[in-house]
Amino acid sequence: MSEKISDYKYKTAVAIRFSDIDAVGHVNNATYLTYFEDARLNYWREIINWDLKESGVIVGRSEVNYLKPIMLEDEIVCYVRTTRIGNSSFDIMHLLVRVTPNGEEICTTGKTVCISYDYSANKSVPIPQKERHKMIEYDEPRLILNTN
After folding, report:
1. Is 25 strand, coil or helix?
2. What kind and span of H or E run contains 63?
3. What is the Cα–Cα distance from 103 to 75, expressed in whole angstroms?
4. Which of 14, 59, 108, 133 has a CA between 20 and 30 Å from the CA of residue 27?
5. Interval 52-81: pLDDT, tens
6. CA distance 60 to 53
7. How does DSSP assign 67-82, residue by residue?
8. 76-106 residue pLDDT tens
């Protein structure tokens, strides 16, 4: 996953808690998925206006590429964008970035395959048109693989 910060519009601050730190002083590897989840939820709420009460989303798969360790004292942000849209599933990319006096440096990349889900029927459903359109419009059609 060769990602460029310039391909991302949405970013959100990530608070590192003391409980996120492992015995050697950096953020525990399992915590990154929680950071991704929080950023993804903010993206859906603030940009896509996804009505999660109307149409749910579940995670089908997650990947994480650890490039540089993140420490307790680091200031980090998470960039989020949609990279693929299918019928009922779509991919979200995440960049965890350390903010430094010299700019931003990518520490971690990750991809989550998300599935539009109807909890009452207990099955995947097509991505709602409003949310589909907002993801494409916000993250730009040239940057999204549309497999539908």
Report:
1. coil
2. strand 56-66
3. 12
4. 59
5. 888 899 999 999 999 999 999 999 999 999
6. 19
7. -S--BTT--EEEEEEE
8. 999 999 999 999 999 999 999 999 999 999 9
The pLDDT value recorded for residue 1 is: 47
Give the Cα separation of 17 and 73 in Å (integer): 10
**Tokens 């497999």, located at residue:** 147
Q: Is 72 helix (H, G, I), strand (E, B) or coil?
A: coil
- What are the residues whose beta carbons fall under 8 Å from the beta carbon of 115, sequence distance 6 or more? 57, 58, 59, 60, 88, 89, 124
Provide the whole-model pTM: 0.92
| Contact call for residues 50 and 111 (beta carbons, < 8 A) | no
Q: Write out the two tokens for 128.
A: 């709602």
Cβ(81)–Cβ(143) below 8 Å:
yes
* Antiparallel, parallel or unpaired: β 10-14 and 56-66: unpaired
Alpha-carbon span 25 to 72, nearest angstrom: 7
Q: Which residues pair with 98 in a beta bridge?
A: 76, 105
- Contacts of residue 87, defined as CB under 8 A and 6 or more positions apart, other chains included, come to 126, 127, 147, 148
Sign of the CA dihedral with 52 first, then 122, 113, and 7 last: negative
